[in-house]
Amino acid sequence: METSLATKTFGGVPTLRFRYLGPADVDELADLWAALHEQHTSTAPHLEDMITRVTADESWRRRRAQYLAWLREPETLAVVAERNGESVGYAMVTVRENQQGSWDRGSRVAVVQTLSVHPDHTGTGVGSGLLEELRRQVGGMGIRDLELTALATSSEDIRFFEQEGFRPFVTTMVSRIGAFSGHD
Q1: Nearest to 110 by CA among 128, 99, 98
Q2: pLDDT digit string (tens) for 63-112?
Q3: What pTM did the predictor assign?
Q4: How far apart are CA 3 and CA 122, in angstroms?
Q5: CA distances (Å), origin 27, targets 62, 65, 111
Q6: In this structure, which of 86, 104, 130, 138 has its CB flanked by the most CB atoms within 10 Å?
Q7: Neighbours of 62 (CB within 10 A)
């Protein structure tokens, strides 16, 4: 992947630079993942009675292993946004085959597995810049759709994604097996 310097500025904030990572670089993402982990757990405390929260270290250990597995696939993208030499956000994107159904979405879909922006840089164009860069890269691969997930209780994130052109598509529901007796 090429490094891109062609990104919009946001309210006079310095331009973002994008750098693509390989498996050997994954550990650079640990601190940004920890910030996202904290956001996830503080945004969805209602899940703790059903889904066990893991520590930030355990969460990173698991996610790091997943990143390494994804990066073995040639079309996976790991891109870091930098501003003035500082990593301020990143995205991890995989490409999957699209099972054709009710909508024509093309034969492959890009999935944003992670979009993390450092809390000190929220609202400064980092998330928008990352999504713009991802669209440029996956569009160049002939992919038409970019999809992602957001915590249902994270209304600010959902509002941001809608402003970026995303629309709700499916809703994922979670239930711990044995935690609830269903009704007929």
Answers
A1: 98
A2: 999 999 999 999 999 999 999 999 999 999 999 988 777 777 778 999 99
A3: 0.84
A4: 22
A5: 12, 11, 21
A6: 130
A7: 11
